[in-house]
Amino acid sequence: MPRLALRKIPPRLMTPCPPPASVPRLLCPGISPRSSAFYCVVLRRHVDLFRTELYGPGVFYRGTWRVFCGIVHWPADLPPLVTYKTPCRKPHRDDKVHDSSAIMYTITNIYVLAAFGTIGGALFGFDISSMSAWIGVDTYTEYFGSPDSNLQGGITASMSAGSFAGSIAAGWLADILGRRYALMVASLVWIVGAMVQCSAQNVTHLVAGRVVSGLAVGVTSSQTCVYLSELAPARIRGRVVGIQQWAIEWGILIMYLIAYGCAVGVSGPAAFRICWGIQAVPGLILFIALFFFPESPRWLASQERWEEALETLAIIHADGDRHDPAVQVAFEEVQEAVRVAHESQDISFLALFGPRVWKRTMCGMSVQMWQQLLGGNVAMYYVVYIFEMAGMTGNTTLWSSAIQYVIFLVTTGAMLPVIDRVGRRKLLLIGSVTCMIVHYIIAGVMASKGRPVASVNGNANLTWEINGSAGMAVIAFSYIFTGIYGLTWAPIGWIYAAEVFPLKYRAKGVGVSAATNWIFNFALAYFVSPAFHNIQWKTYIIFGVFCTVMTFHVFFTYPETAGRTLEEIDLIFDTDVKPWRTHEIGDIFGEEVERRKEMGPKAETSGEASHKEVV
């Protein structure tokens, strides 16, 4: 690939001017020789740099020229400072046009990207509380025929079934279309699912809508993490990807409050129809916002779109400065990762369990499994049941549930700014040990102070009751559990799964990890309602045992990944360093950046797939 030489020019030269009498032709990849008269060169300003692009003459699209990226031959006698423009013509049928979104306004602030991108996580939160808020409301139970514990478990779990299928398909979709377009497809599917739920006439209709919505959540829950982890600098990747979990919690709280408002302010079936229809709004916002997002630089590199990959790294990591040492080192690491990926065979899902990556796959899948078996989402789905067993009724139950959601939101938000400094292993271990203790305490209080009953407040799904100060203790420890979960496993489960896979396996690997999350989410959503009915307080003993086992599993098998580039994490997994000693490995990326700074401007990004710019 030739090197392109560009330098700054005064703004007055930005105005297109007629080409000189003799303009050499430029040869471009993917363009038919019969239409090789593509000599329209434009220098477009980005911050203080100018990007050279080749435009096809006459390929007119919404008021601007469609771009052809990647120049194969740059004539030596063509001045790099002149802007050329040619007359229009109809494009040839063999002309291949790259994505024109590069010429649209692009959001470059990583936190703004995370804020909008994690609306995909908020979709999951919306769906959790859109159901949990209604399971104890007469309007819902009467309209759908007072579903028993098994049927209600099936209704609640139906979204998880769809999410399992969606997360399996997500890896394939993201590898083919790109991370950004996969999320756009999921946004549209979510809107359809919300409309189906809104119009539900019976349980079957409702389940169908939740399955469709689940398909979308399966894609967004896995690929939002992949997308953000591939965009974010290593030093802040944890907090950026962790915003995904925070968005889930915002979605839970916002939809719960909407559901509460509809329940007390709207009569009849319109109450839950309005609530479920409003779910379409965040999906629409996400779909529109994605038009202004950059594509993942690592996915672009995997497609050999090097110029776009380098530019995206520069604008995200260094305000557009391609010569920043951090950008140069990151780009070279991406090049090496792509080279290794291209040398290996095309992967199937079975390849995730091959000799090279099976340890990573086990880490990614198990961290998602343990996140569910910790019991956090159970507390979200069935919070109303828990508080009814503890003696609360009516609006008191609803407001107490809202307090739990606020605690969840605040604790995760408080952890995000420091999550990369604390480390992944430490938070996972602290979370599993403390949640284990809380589960055993709740089980002990309920067993010693509670009593069996035929029903609680007319709800035949609940057969255990605990009142007075003991009931308040159960509620207090439920709040403590939620806070611990929000500080530890809730954000780390998604972050860790997005970090451990190498580039070629990442989309499919995170998809399989998310599928593990959803299959256990489905099992627990279906199991817990009958469990509260049949084994009452012993349900908490089961979750306590899960926490005990996961503590040992995390300690002996999970390496530390905080503060590492995705390529450095590859090295950690490829060595024989014990997981509890991986923090001793030096900061390879940081050392290389410092070396480049000492070398000065001579350290240019180069290589077989790179483009050199002289500024």
Task: Please characterize this protein's 3D structure.
This protein has 615 residues and is mainly alpha-helical. It has two domains: 11-103, no CATH class; 110-294 and 344-557, MFS general substrate transporter like domains (Growth Hormone, Chain: A), CATH 1.20.1250. It has 24 helices and five strands. It has helices spanning 110-117, 119-132, 138-143, 149-177, 179-198, 203-231, 237-265, 270-278, 280-289, 297-302, 306-317, 325-343, 358-373, 376-381, 383-389, 394-415, 419-422, 424-449, 468-487, 489-499, 503-534, 538-557, 566-574, 588-599; strands at 40-46, 49-61, 64-68, 451-452, 464-465. The strands form two sheets. Strands 1-2-3 form a three-stranded antiparallel β-sheet, with no helix packed on it. Strands 4-5 form a two-stranded antiparallel ribbon. The longest helix has 32 residues, at 503-534. The protein starts with 39 loop residues before the first strand and ends in a 16-residue tail after the last helix. The model is unreliable at 1-104 and 601-615 (pLDDT under 50). Residues 595-615 are annotated as: Disordered.
